[in-house]
Design a protein that fits this description.
One of its GO terms (biological process) is dermatan sulfate proteoglycan metabolic process. There is one protein chain. The chain is mainly alpha-helical. The chain has one domain. Helix content is about 45%, strand content about 5%. The chain contains eight helices and two strands. It has a two-stranded parallel sheet with strand order 1-2. Helix 3 packs across helix 7. The longest helix is centred in the last third of the chain and has 17 residues. The N and C termini lie far apart (about 45 Å). The relative contact order is 0.17.
Length: about 160
């Protein structure tokens, strides 16, 4: 493809025929995570310079869809699930189970997964963190976050997300 080797060519720059031909031979996997958990992880990793979670969220809300950070941009705007037909959509919380299946499909031993916390431990920790962080936000911030991530919440099942309340 004429632009295949061009630096940072976006998939949307190819026409439909080129996209289908290019992506047809790949196994396409989309990893999704509750947007509120993504915000918490970004904040905890120090990617925001704010001293509090509430002020970090306000920075995210102020930048909205115009931010350049993939760390907190809505997934639907990054991964284009309407444009790309993914073979697998793997949700955070089911990673070990789904990664084992994907490794077997790729011909690799499923036992090659690194030992980590069980998904239930991770989910419990994020539930606790979510409760703590969510309580720091104003009612307006909660409403604005739900609006910012409305398409992610509609496209993917996050039944226990604080943003879908």
């Amino acid at each position: 493809y004429r632009r295949l080797h061009a630096r940072e060519t976006r998939l949307s720059e190819f026409n439909q025929t080129e996209r289908e031909a290019m992506l047809g031979s790949y196994t396409k996997v989309l990893f999704v995570r509750d947007p509120f958990h993504r915000l918490i992880a970004t904040f905890l990793q120090g990617m925001g310079i704010s001293p509090s979670f509430s002020s970090f969220v306000q920075e995210v809300l102020d930048s909205g869809m115009h931010n350049d950070s993939v760390a907190w941009k809505p997934l639907v705007s990054l991964c284009r699930p309407c444009l790309i037909q993914y073979d697998y959509v793997v949700m955070f919380g089911f990673l070990r189970q789904e990664l084992g299946h994907l490794l077997r499909r790729a011909g690799l031993p499923a036992g090659s997964l690194p030992p980590e916390l069980s998904d239930s431990q991770v989910l419990w920790t994020y539930r606790w963190l979510s409760e703590q962080m969510f309580s720091e936000l104003s009612a307006l911030q909660k409403k604005q976050l739900s609006h910012l991530y409305r398409w992610d919440l509609a496209a993917f099942p996050f039944p226990s997300s604080f943003l879908s309340d």
